[in-house]
Specification:
Bound molecules: flavin-adenine dinucleotide
Largest sheet of chain A: 4 strands, mixed
CATH class of the largest domain in chain A: Mainly Alpha
Distance between the termini of chain B: 62 Å
CATH superfamily of the largest domain in chain B: Butyryl-CoA Dehydrogenase, subunit A, domain 3
Mean pLDDT of chain A: 90
CATH topology of the largest domain in chain B: Butyryl-CoA Dehydrogenase, subunit A, domain 3
Strand order of the largest sheet of chain A: 1-3-4-7
Radius of gyration of chain A: 20 Å
Structural class of chain A: alpha+beta
Oligomer: heterodimer
Distance between the termini of chain A: 13 Å
Low-confidence stretches of chain B: none
Strand content of chain A: 5-15%
Largest sheet of chain B: 4 strands, mixed
Number of helices of chain B: 13
Chain lengths: 336, 424
């Protein structure tokens, strides 16, 4: 997957189409049919790295809320699951758990991208610890079973996510060992999320660049003040750095261990980039940046919310740091 | 024989014991896991709740005032006690031990910035009329300075005031005006002579917020609250005796307000946020999250504490100067910068300790509540002069560095407008 098989002209065309697609998507709309019309499956098969990154970057840019992330996870999980009866979603780990599914026990927690009523089945992963070995097992619940545990997420962002917490429903069938499928799914989702975060950053940075060029104080565009332009330039550095790490993460997807590290690293860098970029985008906007008058606040809160899914930057930095110190031979950077 | 200060402390204690409840924790430590789980800097309450809280603030200020603690350093003529700034600070310290309404809505802008400006620049009968009312909690004052195209470049305000008999007629728009929705009066910077350089053609008027032609529309902050506003002024008549300072001499008046602003942002009224970032509270936060033994966390806690201590000291110095009637110099920008930075760092420190629970409300005490603070801190790097402007002031006025090139402050305002170099 090292080579990009799509040429630049095709890529531009695709980017344009996907951007239009998101622009036309109604709130809570389903991406599927529109993507089918574009022949997305073929594009994704030919060049998954470019396709996924493009799709999620545009999703981030447009601030759309879709279930595209479910599709990414299911692409890895479906092969080990019984055939789907209708549409499926995946219960994501609750932000405090990073990318580790909720531990086996009497309670179940997690996050859904959309209310349970919008799908037929929900895949629930559970972490089991036995003799110091960690393994993940999978259940497939009919969606209505989780409905009573679901509450809209309150707080930072109104992406339409739903938190799930309460007494764990009994398994409808023998638990299915996930093998390496969960790790692969989480890594794929982290790469997708990194792209989405960077899409929101790119859009916000562009808005800030435009604002700095248009806004005049002291008789000239504020972009002429070095303090302002340096902030924007630093934003670009953070963005490009994170994009590079994300691209490199796509080059090691065939090696499960390497893929996991590289994806986590990409997500970490995207999370750090958004913190830096959003802070500067707000500052460059002055009071407009901290009000709900302009659009800036939407990018700020969306990027912060995406950051905490499947491993927030702080959690990832801590867990990677711990692993680097404790586990001999782990060097995610060198493996890229 | 008890000293005069001992007596002051004794009467203050007596007053507080009779009118307020002592906090259960030590001095200003809210108890961990107990009580309202909110850490706000700006109000995020719905309007009804907000209005009720403002009423409580007014009532408490009135109680203070009637008992001689409403304006400890103020002139007797306006209901003050003419005591030293030390008395004032001592009183603040004592009051922090009691559970009393937060009076930020009155004190941050009105009593902290506009009051001193009125005292320094208004005519005597205007002082008589407004100062006691303000310090008694009856009149809340707002600062009608910023405009859509005059933010950092405040001296390019465009709101016009035209003389008509004994009145001025004011037309224009102000923006980001905090507490305007609660205010009875507003200090408004108006362009009175566009033929003079921009700093020279401004006049400061005290506007009655209930006058015909004043319209206040709320704006919402990112953190959720609607505590700043747009204020539209259409043919608003302001009697000339409500002018502060000279005609076309409003910039001097504005500087008094701005100096007080820079020195008081963070000096008082930070209320729950300041308590949440106090050492005891942060220690509890670390304990509750099992982080007491983490070396890196400890180091950051100590650094945070050291920075806060430094800022607090500078703030106290500035407040002392101010309340003693001395204008703080450009160095006030140091504490404004440091204060915003500390609050930001403090919020991020808490964010790190609490982790992702901060973003999604899980209902666990002491976690999501930090979000409001985290969302408020960016505003502190903007209000009262942005971080960049503070640094420019320090660079030019304290370090003596040359101004950035091509900022024209000599040409008549009208010409700058016309030549498209708007705002200069
Ligand atoms: C919560 C809040 C409450 C407020 N309350 C009030 C109030 O009660 N009354 C009132 O009058 N105003 C109030 N303000 C407005 C505040 O004073 C202005 O927001 C502030 O002065 C900045 O102006 P601006 O927002 O127009 O930003 P701009 O001036 O447009 O600045 C945008 C960016 O450009 C930068 N910049 C501008 N000039 C320079 C320069 N020369 N060099 C380097 N960088 C520069 C700024 O630092 C900033 O990053 C409030 C603001 C906030 C956020």
């Amino acid at each position: 997957m090292t080579t990009t098989s799509l040429d630049a002209a095709t890529l531009d065309l695709l980017t344009g189409s996907v951007r239009e697609l998101f622009a036309a998507l109604p709130a809570g709309g389903d991406l599927g049919p529109a993507l089918d019309e574009l022949g997305w499956a073929e594009v994704a098969a030919e060049d998954p790295a470019t396709a996924t990154t493009l799709l999620f970057t545009e999703q981030g840019r447009s601030l759309a809320c879709t279930r595209a992330l479910d599709a990414v996870l299911l692409a890895e999980l479906d092969p080990v699951l019984p055939p789907a009866r209708g549409t499926r979603a995946v219960l994501l780990p609750t932000p405090a758990d990073g990318d580790e599914p909720s531990r086996h026990g009497s309670t179940l927690t997690g996050v859904l991208l959309a209310p349970p009523g919008t799908v037929d089945e929900i895949v629930v992963a559970t972490t089991h610890l036995a003799d110091g070995e960690r393994s993940v097992q999978l259940d497939v619940h009919p969606a209505p079973v989780l409905a009573p545990l679901a509450h809209p997420v309150q707080g930072f962002d109104t992406a339409g996510w739903v938190t799930v917490s309460g007494a764990r429903p009994s398994s409808p069938h023998e638990r299915i060992p996930a093998g390496t499928a969960w790790t692969a799914a989480a890594a794929a989702a982290q790469r997708a999320l990194a792209a989405e975060i960077l899409g929101t950053c790119d859009a916000a940075l562009r808005i800030a660049v435009r604002h700095a060029s248009d806004r005049r104080q002291f008789g000239r565009p504020i972009a002429e003040f070095q303090a302002v332009r340096h902030r924007l330039a630093e934003g670009l550095v953070a963005l490009e750095g994170a994009r590079g790490v994300l691209r490199s993460a796509w080059e090691v997807t065939d090696d499960p261990g390497g893929a996991m590290w590289a994806a986590a690293l990409a997500k970490l860098q995207a999370g750090r980039a958004q913190a830096r970029i959003m802070r500067d985008v707000v500052q460059v906007h002055g009071a407009m940046g901290v009000s709900r008058e302009g659009s800036v606040h939407r990018y700020v809160s969306r990027a912060a919310a995406l950051d905490v899914l499947l491993g927030g930057r702080r959690l990832l930095a801590e867990s990677m740091g711990t692993a680097m110190l404790l586990t001999a031979g782990i060097d995610p950077v060198a493996r890229l | 024989m008890p000293s005069e200060m001992d007596e002051f402390v004794a009467t203050a204690r007596e007053f507080l014991d009779a009118n307020a409840t002592r906090r259960s924790g030590s001095a200003d430590l809210p108890e961990w896991g107990v009580g309202e789980d909110r850490i706000t800097y700006f109000s995020t309450d719905p309007p009804e709740v907000d209005a009720a809280k403002v009423a409580e603030s007014r009532a408490w200020q009135r109680t203070r005032y009637e008992n001689g603690f409403g304006w400890v350093t103020g002139p007797r003529a306006y209901g003050g006690r003419e005591l030293s700034t030390l008395h004032d600070l001592v009183y603040d310290g004592l009051e922090a031990e009691y559970d009393v309404p937060d009076t930020g809505v009155l004190s941050l802008i009105g009593l902290g910035m506009i009051g001193p400006t009125i005292l320094a620049h208004a005519r005597d009968h205007i002082k008589d009329r407004y100062l006691p009312a303000m310090y008694r909690g009856d009149a809340i004052a707002c600062q009608l300075f910023s405009e859509p195209s005059a933010g950092s470049d405040l001296a390019s305000v465009e709101t016009r005031a035209v003389r008509d008999g004994d009145d001025w007629v004011v037309d224009g728009q102000k923006v980001w005006t905090s507490v305007a929705q609660h205010a009875q009066i507003g200090l408004c910077l108006c362009r009175t002579n566009p033929d003079l350089p921009k700093h020279k053609g401004i006049t400061a008027l005290l506007v009655d917020m209930s006058a015909p032609g004043v319209e206040v529309r709320p704006l919402r902050q990112m953190s959720g609250g609607a505590d700043f506003n747009e204020v539209f002024l259409t043919g608003v008549r302001v009697p000339d005796d409500h002018r502060l300072g000279e005609v076309d001499g409003g910039w001097r008046v504005a500087l008094t307000t701005l100096m007080n602003e820079r020195a008081t942002v963070g000096g008082e009224g930070a209320g729950p946020a300041a308590r949440a970032l106090s050492l005891p509270f942060l220690t509890e936060l670390l304990r509750a999250n099992g982080r007491l033994d983490d070396g890196a966390t400890r180091r950051r806690l100590a650094e945070l504490y050291a920075d806060q201590a430094a800022t607090e000291y500078l703030n106290h110095q500035a407040i002392r100067k101010l309340r003693a009637g001395t204008q703080p110099g450009p160095e006030a920008s140091v504490s404004k910068l440091m204060y915003a930075r500390n609050l930001t760092r403090g919020a991020h420190f808490a964010a790190e300790v609490v982790g992702p629970r901060l973003i999604a409300d899980t209902g666990e005490w002491g976690t999501y509540s930090w979000t409001e603070l985290l969302l408020s801190t960016p505003a502190l790097r903007i209000l009262g002069g942005t971080e960049e402007i503070m640094k420019n002031i320090l660079a030019e006025r304290v370090l003596g560095l040359p101004k950035e090139p091509s900022i024209d402050s000599r040409s008549p305002f009208r010409e700058l407008r016309r030549s498209g170099t708007a705002g200069s």
